[in-house]
Amino acid sequence: MNSEHLDKLRHSSAHLLAAAVLELWPDAKRAIGPSIENGFYYDFEFSKPISEEDFPKIEAKMKELLQSWTSFEKIEVSKEEALEKVKGNEYKEELINGFADKGESLTFYKSGSFEDLCRGGHVENPSQEIGAFKLLSIAGAYWRGDEKNKMLTRIYATAFPTQPELDEYLHNLEEAKKRDHRKLGKELGLFAFSDLVGSGLPLFTPKGAFLREELNKFSQGLREEIGFQRVWVPHIAKNDLYKVSGHWDKFANEWLLVKSQETSDDLVMKPMNCPHHQQIFAAEQRSYRDLPIKYMETTTVYRDEKAGELLGLSRVRSITQDDSHIFCNIEQIEQIYSELLTIIDKFYSSLGLSYRVRLSFRDPQTPQKYHGDPEVWNKAESILRKIAEDNKLNYYEGPGEAAFYGPKLDFMVTDALGREWQCATPQLDFVQPARFGLVYTDKDGSEKTPVMIHFALMGALERFISVYIEHTAGNFPAWLSYTQAVILPISSEKHSDYAYKIMQELKSKGIRAEVDSANETLGNKIRKAQAQKTPYVLVVGDKELENNNVNIRLRGGESLGEMTVEEFGKRASEKISSKALDL
Question: pTM for this one?
Answer without folding.
Answer: 0.85
